[in-house]
Amino acid sequence: MGSIGAKAEIDFGHFTNIVNDQPRHSERQYRGVDPTNKEALWDVPVASVADVDNAVEAASRAFASWSTLPGPLPMDGPWARSIP
After folding, report:
1. Among 14, 29, 41, 67, which is 20 to 30 Å from 76 by CA?
2. CA–CA separation, 56 vs 61, rounded Å?
């Protein structure tokens, strides 16, 4: 367990977009930036128009069965109201 206030060191390695359980590789990359200090982070792939279209199609096909799964607890209990 880390100490409070310690900066986490995470090796994110290589990112790949996943569409319909399949990796989608991209020639274009975008360098992530930490908005708190403008530090360069890691490269992430830029999805193509076809990747986005395929992701929307896959999500549309999955919606009927996915939407019947139980969702998260409602955010109206006493524990939820205690969250600032």
Report:
1. 67
2. 9
